[in-house]
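Regression test case RT-17, inverse folding.

Input:
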């Protein structure tokens, strides 16, 4: 060709520009960008959903931890109850030497008394327990001796309960001039039958 520059007509140039724009639009991966944007949006929704499920799971875990703590406390209480039941079975064991233990306690303290032991009637039984009653009369005794006997009787005989006490001033005084008392006690003790 000759050395002259090639010139296009204005119309051809417009046509070529339009074709070039169309080709550029066809080569642009717009659909890939749309799919990428959609996947990004979907992954954000999924991440937020996962975070909310994580929060729900953490709350459920906290509830379960609290519940397991409560269950452990209940187990500890049940164990304590079982141990106290074992101790209470010892407490309610029949004591054939009940009256002699009280007489020994009174003799050690220097108290003179008479003990009478009797059973409750059969209607007062609770499950497999029956109540034994002890009546004690002591005349002309000092207040320290009476109180010492009460303390010793309850500590020496497991399960013994003071049900009744009556103190009346005595007519005599001790050699030291202390007043004396006439006392009536009633003790009860529940025992297995």
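Golden output:
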């Amino acid at each position: 060709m000759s050395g002259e520059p090639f010139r296009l007509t204005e119309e051809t140039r417009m046509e070529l520009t339009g074709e070039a724009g169309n080709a550029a639009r066809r080569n642009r991966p717009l659909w890939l960008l749309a799919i990428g944007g959609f996947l990004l949006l979907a992954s954000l929704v999924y991440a937020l959903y996962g975070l909310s499920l994580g929060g729900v799971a953490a709350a459920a875990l906290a509830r379960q931890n609290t519940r397991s703590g409560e269950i452990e406390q209940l187990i500890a209480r049940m164990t304590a109850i079982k141990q106290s039941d074992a101790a209470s079975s010892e407490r309610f064991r029949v004591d054939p030497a009940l009256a002699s233990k009280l007489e020994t306690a009174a003799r050690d303290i220097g108290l003179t008394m008479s003990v009478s032991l009797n059973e409750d009637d059969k209607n007062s039984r609770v499950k497999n327990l029956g109540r034994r009653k002890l009546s004690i009369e002591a005349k002309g005794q000092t207040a320290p001796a009476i109180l010492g006997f009460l303390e010793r009787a309850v500590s020496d005989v497991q399960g013994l309960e003071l049900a009744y006490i009556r103190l009346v001033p005595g007519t005599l005084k001790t050699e030291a001039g202390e007043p004396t008392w006439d006392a009536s006690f009633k003790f009860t003790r529940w025992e297995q039958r």
